[in-house]
Design brief:
With 415 residues, the chain is an alpha+beta fold. It is built from eleven helices and 26 strands. Helix 7 packs antiparallel against helix 9.
């Protein structure tokens, strides 16, 4: 009997120690951290290569087994106040809420989902690793608690880097202009819109830079120095600061635009509206809020097919702007294997022009536009007015009925 009593005592003591041991076992990492969507205004710190990134949303979803899922996407951008400011007066109060979708910070993806392994305790965890998407690979690390999420992304590398490099603008032929459509009468001769655009932008000095006058193409070449497509999907540019004497060069910050190669000589260009607006706001001066008396923006907006325009332009903020690249099209330029045109094609440009064309069907508004353009042309004003009058009258018909091809872009030469 004593032996049984001794055995039960040993079993009881073992059970006590086992119970105590279970009580002291560490809780599953992240067990008390709830699922939450974090924004910059609500606990999110997101950095890309050490630089804080704007306009992103990160969702944290734990799975109660020491794992979780992170979802990164662009934050919708509210532009109601911008549109209201353009409308002016009482019409601004009637502006409906309008938000724009944006892309994630990862090139080529509207939204990226990352499964992570959590380390730490129930209420505070960290994670690290690397992953890939259709277009790129990248590394991540971060930490999360109930009220905050810190996430750092680094080492983004596109899987296709065939166009990566730095390109200079071709000064002798900086722009690609292709427009096949019906002709119109200009002083008794047949003219087309392509030839008129090239004439107006290459022959007559209309733009003043640092005390000198340039035609549009020359001004473009003087301002845009180079464009770099990074292997990390970034797009940056070096340009001249036109507000500073001597036109010193400035490098645009990373984060304004990203790209991926989408096949068939096409890239998709992703703009970050919030980053662009922030960059412009930092350069604002006392003249920023000056209003032109030449136009009433609400009249112009009232003529444009806003709904159609929005339906075409807005989706590209999250899916990317299709930008083609290929050989330079210009008879005056010798073929160069390092020269590349990056351009918007007919499928993107023409539907937008068709939504804008009603502006030029209004004779009074058309006159205002022509007079404004002439006033900006200085001594060339009368000539600009003479050219623009028949062209803008013919514009709606050409855009809606006879255009078979239209392309606008830049001619660049790889260093």
């Amino acid at each position: 009997m004593k032996k049984f009593a001794y055995l039960f005592a040993v079993i009881g003591i073992a059970c006590m120690f086992t119970a105590c041991s279970n009580d002291d076992d560490p809780a599953m990492p992240g067990a008390s951290i709830p699922a939450k969507t974090y924004t910059a205004a609500d606990g999110l710190t997101l950095k890309l290569d050490g630089t804080e990134a704007a306009g992103q949303i990160v969702s944290f979803t734990p799975s109660n087994d020491g794992k979780a899922t992170l979802s990164i996407k662009g934050a919708p951008l509210d532009i109601s106040s911008i549109i209201g400011g353009m409308m002016g007066g009482s019409k601004a109060d009637q502006t409906p809420n309008l938000t724009l979708p944006t892309s994630s910070i990862i090139p080529g993806s509207a939204e990226v989902t990352i499964p992570v392994e959590l380390t730490g305790d129930a209420s505070s965890c960290s994670f690290t690793g690397s992953t890939e998407t259709t277009y790129c690979t990248f590394a991540y690390e971060g930490k999360v608690s109930e009220g905050a999420l810190d996430l750092s992304l680094s080492n983004i590398k596109l899987k296709n880097t065939s166009i990566a490099g730095t390109y200079n603008l071709m000064s002798d032929s900086p722009a690609r202009v292709v427009w096949d459509g019906s002709e119109f009468d200009l002083m008794g001769s047949d003219y087309n819109l392509r030839d008129l655009i090239l004439l107006m932008t290459t022959k007559y000095p209309m733009i003043e830079l640092d005390g000198n006058k340039y035609n549009v193409m020359a001004a473009l070449a003087a301002v845009l120095k180079s464009v770099t497509f990074g292997e990390d999907g970034s797009v940056t540019a070096v340009y001249a600061d036109t507000k500073t004497p001597g036109l010193p060069e400035v490098t645009a910050p990373k984060g304004l635009a990203r790209y991926v190669i989408d096949g068939n000589n096409t890239i998709r260009l992703f703009l970050s509206p919030e980053a662009i607006i922030a960059a412009q706001a930092s350069k604002a001066d006392d003249n920023t809020n000056e209003e032109s008396e030449a136009f009433d923006p609400s009249v112009i907006l009232g003529k444009i097919n806003i709904e159609g325009l929005i339906s075409k332009v807005v989706p590209m903020l999250s899916t990317g702007i299709p930008l083609h690249y290929g050989d330079v099209v210009n008879d005056a330029v010798e073929p160069d294997p390092n020269a590349v045109s990056f351009y918007l094609g007919k499928e993107t440009i023409l539907p937008i022009l068709q939504d804008v064309s009603p502006v030029f069907e209004d004779a009074e508004l058309r006159t205002q536009i022509i007079e404004f353009a002439a006033s900006q042309a200085g001594d060339m004003g009368p000539l600009a007015q003479m050219f623009l009058t028949p062209a803008l009258e013919a514009f709606p018909n050409i855009v809606n009925n006879t255009t078979t091809e239209v392309q606008f872009g830049l001619n660049l030469k790889k260093q």
